[in-house]
User: Fold this.
Amino acid sequence: MQYKSKISMLFVAAVLTGCSAIPAHPEAENVELVNTAPDAAKCRFIKEIVGSQGNFLTGDFTPNEDLVIGARNELRNKAHQHGANVVYIQDMKNTNAYGSLGTTNTTVVGKAYFCKK
Assistant:
């Protein structure tokens, strides 16, 4: 019985952890997200990146705002890991798992650039 109790506690902890937005790493907070392609004369393309938050298990328990912020923060974190300081957002999708109460996942696709300021 004690084993089942520990499993239940781990499950609840996992669900609650999934309810908050993925944080931006301190060094990635200054990565700028833009809706227009940056100036090619001042910026060097690095790579396409994807940020995502939510899944069929935690999505119903995560506010939509946290799904969006978490996906954008994951995009910032990945951009910074690759040396980018600007991300041109190309697409953003919200999806619903079968039988869910609403949005369960948000995914953001963008192109990472290093731009001279």
